[in-house]
Amino acid sequence: MFLINMDITLIIIVIIISLLQSIFGVGILLFGTPILLSLDYSFIESLNILLPLSLLVNLVQLFSDYNNVNYKFYLAFIKYTIPFLFLSLFFIIKIEINMNYLVGIFIILVSIQNNVPYLKKNIIKLLNEKIFLILTGLVHGLSNLGGSLLTVIIYSKNMSKNETRSTIVVCYATFALIQLITILLVANKYYFENIIIYCTISFVVVILSERYLYNQIKPKFYNKSFELFLLFMGFFLILK
Q1: 22 close to 61: Cβ distance less than 8 angstroms
Q2: CA-to-CA distance for 20 and 14, rounded, in angstroms?
Q3: pLDDT tens, 162-199?
Q4: Who contacts 46 (Cβ-Cβ below 8 Å, separation ≥6)?
Q5: Taking the alpha carbons of 224, 226, 230, 233 in that order, is the dihedral positive or negative?
Q6: How many helices (H) and strands (E) does the chain have?
Q7: Selection from 191, 202, 196, 109 nearest residue 156 by Cα
Q8: Which of 15, 30, 3, 9 is nearest to 233 (CA)?
Q9: C-alpha dihedral over 45, 46, 51, 52, to 10 degrees?
């Protein structure tokens, strides 16, 4: 009966983006934000819906997978990304910067680099970790799309399947936590309507995915799928 008073479209969106995040470590914020904005939700409203979902999914995944996190990278992420995430989110209410095209094109290049030796050689030169992490914080605070850059730099390190996802997951959980705290302190706005129901749906999706889908994916197939995921993500950001 509770579904009568809920947006069925939003429920479907929650299911899809939760499934993507359960597999690749990203998806809820990356795809959910532009989708909700296109449905006339404000940026802050979108964050209030998506951040609890993202944090919940990340914590569920970390509960059984924290041993696979690359903590050396995570410490660098904390040091260089989080301060700039806070600063950029602090000013987002007054500033609107559309970085979709630039970020989208770069992601597409990264997704095809393994098949184009010239690209791989030169893109790696561009991946100065400190600068890239700072840029990730700025982009994420301004557009909620910094996860796309985060996946690029982690993917470029050729980690194992589990280490890749676990490292993305812990970084994304930190993203969501800092954003929620900043919104509560700075924007002083939070919308609780139906959030428990959306979180429950997201929780069920990730539990089912962990049990019946993710663990069945072979590492080689996962790497190829990740490349296709990055490619799709790049075009999505450009065309949305």
Answers
A1: yes
A2: 10
A3: 898 889 889 989 988 988 888 777 666 566 567 888 89
A4: 32, 33, 36, 37, 144
A5: positive
A6: 12, 0
A7: 109
A8: 30
A9: 60
Total number of residues shown for the chain? 240
How high is the pLDDT of residue 2?
A: 44
As a whole number of angstroms, the distance between CA 92 and CA 70 comes to 30
Owner of token pair 């993305």: 168
Question: What value does the mean pLDDT of the chain take?
Answer: 77
Torsion of Cα atoms, 158 then 119 then 23 then 85, to 10°: 90
Q: How would you label 210-225 residue by residue, b for 16+ Cβ within 10 Å and e otherwise?
A: beeebeeeeeeebbee
81: left (phi over 0), alpha (psi -120 to 50) or beta: alpha
- DSSP for 86-107, written as a single string: HHHHHTTTT-----HHHHHHHH
First-last CA distance in the chain: 34
Query: Computed from CA positions of residues 134, 137, 139, 142, in that sequence, does the dihedral angle turn out positive or negative?
Result: negative
